[in-house]
Amino acid sequence: MPSAQTIAQAAAVLKAGGLVSFPTETVYGLGADALQPAAVGRIFGAKGRPAANPVIVHVAGVADVEGVAADWPAVAAELAARFWPGPLTLVVAKHRAIPEIVTAGGPTVAIRAPAHPVAQALIRAARAPIAAPSANASTHLSATRAEHVLRGLDGRIELLLDGGPTTGGLESTVLDVTVSPPRLLRPGLITPAEIEAAIGKIDAAAAARPLEIGQDAEHAAPLRSPGMMARHYAPRVPLECVAPGDREGIRRLCREHRRLGWLKLGMEEIDDACGVFAIEMPREPAAYAAQLYAALHTLEAANVERIIA
């Protein structure tokens, strides 16, 4: 884990308008001081991120929300008390102090308090909210290890805090609490069932309707949350889903591609799967989630032609 001295150095980089990549319990983030528009603009440049796609603002806890949110409804307070610090992002009305570039020009801001000790230490040392999407090139695989960050962003950031592999492996859940019932904008580590157990019924339909941002992305309507575009967190290699036990489907893909990557479950086998680079994945969903991006990064690096899951 980074030392207190390194954390202080990272905080100084942020205050000077620089970019720092840091681990959270979900994935690695690419952070800038959320109150400095030029610094946040560098995030968009480093990632190649469309201007219509907002970024999440990270705070240490509820006490820091006052300068980020214009309103903190009772449902937000209830959810924060239950899930913060943790992988739940809440969309609320934005405070006038938050630059428009953070929210893609929209009236709301996405806020979360990460649980990772390095992220918490960095936010407290910087004494400012940190705007941070995932530390990867736009639309590509998120980083769950420091080497993943360097693979996609080396030379574009000032400092990387290496906290080892992240534990959650997938992005935070994003919930819009400016509407009633609250609307799920991005599925993530906190499930709809867990949220509904805390506050009652939510609208989960919006998360199933991704929006396409095309070549005119700079002039697209602002999204209310990251993770709503049609393509996100994707490997550069085409990925195809097959039914469990579909041996003929896997054989067909083997015939069509000389080098196949396979995220296999348990002890699945295929007799004539020559040229297959297989990674065994756990059957338990949370464990699968924790390993998914790392496994896809491994298959990308192995130069496979197609990935099957």
Would you write up a description of this structure?
The protein is α/β, with parallel strands linked by helices and 309 residues long. Helices cover 28% and strands 17% of the residues. The strands form 2 sheets. It has a 9-stranded mixed β-sheet, sandwiched between helices. A hairpin with a 4-residue loop joins strand 1 (20-23) and strand 2. Helix 1 crosses helix 4 (117-126). Residues 212-219 have low confidence and may be disordered.
| Strand order, largest beta sheet | 7-1-2-6-3-5-4-8-9
- Secondary-structure element string: HEEHEHEEHEHEEEHEHEEHE
Helical stretch tally: 8
What is the CA–CA distance across the termini? 33 Å
Highlighted features:
28% helix, 309 residues, 17% strand, four-stranded parallel β-sheet
Short summary:
This protein has 8 helices and 13 strands.
Topology:
Blueprint: H1 4-15, E1 20-23, E2 28-33, H2 37-47, E3 57-58, H3 74-83, E4 88-93, E5 108-112, H4 117-126, E6 130-131, H5 146-153, E7 159-160, E8 173-176, E9 183-186, H6 192-199, E10 239-240, H7 247-256, E11 260-265, E12 276-281, H8 285-301, E13 306-308
Parallel strand pairs: 1-7, 3-5, 4-8, 10-13, 11-12, 11-13
Antiparallel strand pairs: 1-2, 2-6, 3-6, 4-5, 8-9
Helix pairs in contact: 1-4
